[in-house]
Amino acid sequence: MTKTKSLSFSSIILLGINGIVGSGIFLLPGTLYRQSGILSIVAILMAGFSTLLIAMNYAVMASKIDAEGGAYAYASRAFGPLGGFQTGWFGWLLGVITISAEIAAFQTVLKSVLVDVHGEWIFDAVGMAIILLLVVINISGTDIIKIFDNLSSAIKVSLLIAFIIVGVWLLSKTSVAVPQATPVKASDFTGTFSTAFYMFTGFSFLLIAAKQMTNPEKTIPRALIISISTVGIIYAAVQFILILLQRSSLAGDTMPIATVFNQVFGIAGRMVVLVGIMISTIGVALAVSFDTTSDLASLSSDEHLLPAIVGKTTKNGSALVSIILTMGLAALLILSGSYLFLVKLIVLSSFVQYLATIGSLIKLRNDKSLPKGMQIPFGLAIPIISIIIIVYLMFSFNWISLALAAGAAIIGGVIYCLNAKNPAKAK
Question: What is the CATH code of the structural domain delimited by 12-172+182-421?
């Protein structure tokens, strides 16, 4: 039976916006301003535009290859099992790091709530408790995941809308001048540009949702343009309002939106924002944990690229080994990396996925066995420009991040080769 196309175009837009908005806009404005001043707004808009170019490559591949797995499915078709495995391997790592980053964001916010509490061990203990909670939920079932995901989605979008309204109201009551742009080192601006990418990495949710629409080849480009542009404008507006309201103090503020609410509504307003952010981050971590453990199990049970035990499920369908591996690595990252460091690793891992997808598009563009699919203007111009942007930004990462990425690729290659000698058997 043909699946009913039930989502309207406006629903796709809302899902796309919700998928893109994450913890970054709440925790990163101060960092972006410290690096590039008012030019951080330019960096945000550039990151949004670059994401749109990259997303168009994904849209083309999604219209050609109608299969779950995203970049993994595209790379497998274009570059064979090893290329697909490495892409899937980095996709799993991306999920693990995202879980860690969201929990690290929770810890960062918690430190603002418990301002008089000293000792990192307390916050590490909270992080490990959240990991344990995610393990239990992933093993027991998925109903609560949907509830938390819907709740966190409503909270984060509501907070941003409320902030813009409050910010505009405050600006209307005072006379403020737009600060002049000051000279910024090229390396600092590149770092800002790269960090701002983190705030747009959830665009792939839109591509998944858009498949539930009629004529996705025509609607996906419009949905991408509207969703990413809308989020970019919201982010730029939030950053601009914060700069006007806080000026130089923004550079040292890890919770600037909460600070503004504190000015208007007092400590109660600040606490509402902080609690809202914490709920939102837990919701994102929970939703990503379910998808990430499922992806790892799929590499074993469906693709036979990992030992069979990794994909083995319990009576209620939970992939226990996959859950333990995913959450165990996430726990190590929480203990060893800060939020900003994890953000950089997420962007780097995302770039691997982007390059795999763009490379697949270039290689498969003339494959007659695939549907013609969606066409983007200017031939190979958009894929090539996308690659140039990604490669340029990869030079902004420090040697530790690049070494970790290289190490992950080597480990993935070793695992693939060992499993190829002793292929997993489907149960």
Answer: 1.20.1740.10
